[in-house]
Design goal:
CATH class of the largest domain in chain B: Mainly Alpha
CATH superfamily of the largest domain in chain B: RNA polymerase sigma factor, region 2, helix turn helix motif
Order of helices and strands of chain B: HHHHHHHHHHHH
Oligomer: heterodimer
Structural class of chain B: mainly alpha
Radius of gyration of chain B: 20 Å
Helix content of chain A: 25-40%
Distance between the termini of chain A: 82 Å
CATH architecture of the largest domain in chain B: Orthogonal Bundle
Largest sheet of chain B: none
Radius of gyration of chain A: 29 Å
Strand order of the largest sheet of chain A: 1-8-7-3-5
Number of domains of chain B: 2
Strand content of chain B: under 5%
Number of strands of chain B: 0
Distance between the termini of chain B: 77 Å
Shape of chain B: globular
CATH topology of the largest domain in chain B: Rna Polymerase Sigma Factor, Chain: A
Structural class of chain A: alpha+beta
């Protein structure tokens, strides 16, 4: 074989794809041919350089966050489709106001039902609520329970570009409370601190039970009023 | 099923999924970064993959060699995105139809051997490959998937893979042999 015949085999040689005879022949040729030896070194050098190309690290905590998002998204698809709200009962707002002490901007409220019964809502069809950057709007959750409930844990998670007004830099808040029979209303002053899209994830948990809801948020412009409703069936 | 049992089962699923997928996230991110060339796109691709796989835990548990299987799903997801984005994976592959003039490619590779080729230049050239070429080189030349594994991952005969790899490398060598813009500017200044 001449040099050109050898060149076409270089990649397979480096891949270990040549049979023993071909490999031995090429090795012998390269040992005696300076041109081919240099060319083979070029092929090897390119592969070495490719393997050394840097990878920008993922953001801190990405793996944990990505796994959590997958879990939350899967769980959220188990909850039923949101329906329009008729009215609010404001008693829960008083408790909330004591806890957060924030001025409530009039406006945004979201609506959904928290129950395991009903149609599944695809993640791609979650409601989207737009806000302007640095704007604070109220997100109201209405939690329906069939009886008085003690020891309920409420958790709200927000994407990185949103926060609860007055809780700068915090994207997750959790607190324990007591729910009264009927509708309990919780108003969250949500502030958009940067452009982008994400999900508000609200969870109500008691003992081994837990219910989840997520809503898409986008920091762009204002949107219509809505309300989140959470039904806890016995 | 009671609500308590439902949520208990959900918690078990969550732990199982994280046990299964956790050890592979770094590898999947690295592959995604090679495919996409940016952190944001790579994270987005991995997140999308996890969302799709979460309901398929039983299937995942039954897979003997999970890493190549995950690479296969990731690759298909990536290619689907490229196609949905209106960019043709196949058209750019044809970019390397020109004769394989080894001498034309020598300059860039010699620089590489001599150590004078900057990493930045290599990154720029790699980024100029089309998505399919990048993915192929990432899987084989960078991450070390064998041709046999790739044949399964990409559902492509080994002979075809060899041809595509050859075209991809040829294209990269040609890109590396181009006169860098920065050097032209330096000469003129």
């Amino acid at each position: 074989m001449n040099c050109k015949d050898q060149h076409v085999l270089f990649d397979e040689y480096l891949d270990g794809e040549l049979n023993e005879s071909q490999s031995a022949s090429l090795t012998a040729h390269v040992e005696t041919c300076g041109t081919c030896k240099a060319r083979l070194a070029q092929h090897q050098a390119l592969r070495d350089a490719l393997r050394q190309m840097p990878v920008e690290p993922a953001r801190s905590g990405f793996a944990h966050s990505a796994l959590r998002q997958a879990r939350l998204a899967y769980a959220a698809e188990k909850i039923p489709h949101p329906q329009p709200v008729v009215k609010q009962q404001p008693f829960f707002r008083h408790w909330f106001a004591a806890g957060f002490g924030g001025a409530m901007a009039a406006g945004l409220a979201l609506w959904a039902v928290f129950t395991l019964i009903g149609p599944v809502q695809p993640a791609s069809k979650l409601p989207m609520f737009n806000m302007a950057v640095l704007e604070t709007r109220n997100v109201t959750l209405a939690i329906n329970v069939p009886e008085d409930m003690d020891g309920v844990t409420l958790t709200v998670e927000l994407p990185d570009n949103f926060e609860i007004s007055g809780y700068r830099g915090k994207h997750q808040l959790a607190w324990q409370t007591r729910l009264k029979k009927g509708r309990n209303v919780l108003t969250l002053p949500v502030k958009a601190v940067g452009k982008g899209q994400g999900q508000l994830v609200a969870r109500v948990a008691r003992n081994q039970e837990s219910k989840l809801l997520r809503v898409n948020l986008q920091a762009t412009s204002a949107d219509k009023n809505s309300l989140i409703v959470i039904d806890l069936k016995a | 099923m009671s609500i308590v049992k439902f949520w208990s089962r959900t918690a078990d699923n969550q732990n199982r999924f994280e046990d299964l997928m956790g050890p592979h996230i770094d590898h999947l991110y690295r592959l995604s970064y090679r495919f996409t060339g940016s952190r944001e796109d790579a994270e987005d691709l991995v997140q999308d993959l996890l969302l799709k796989l979460y309901p398929r835990q039983q299937e995942i548990e039954s897979i003997e060699k999970l890493r190549p299987w995950l690479a296969r799903v990731l690759y298909r997801l990536f290619i689907d995105r490229v196609r949905q984005g209106g960019r043709s994976v196949l058209s750019a592959v044809e970019d390397s139809e020109a004769p394989d003039d080894q001498m034309d490619q020598a300059a860039g590779i010699e620089a590489l051997v001599e150590g004078t080729l900057t990493q930045e230049r290599l990154l720029e050239s790699f980024a100029l490959l089309n998505e399919d070429q990048r993915a192929l080189l990432a899987l084989h030349d960078i991450e070390g998937y064998t041709l046999a594994e790739l044949a399964d991952v990409l559902d492509t005969p080994i002979g075809t893979l060899k041809s595509r790899l050859n075209r991809s490398r040829t294209r990269l060598r040609k890109l590396l042999s181009r006169e860098p813009f920065q050097e032209s500017r330096r000469v003129n200044s």
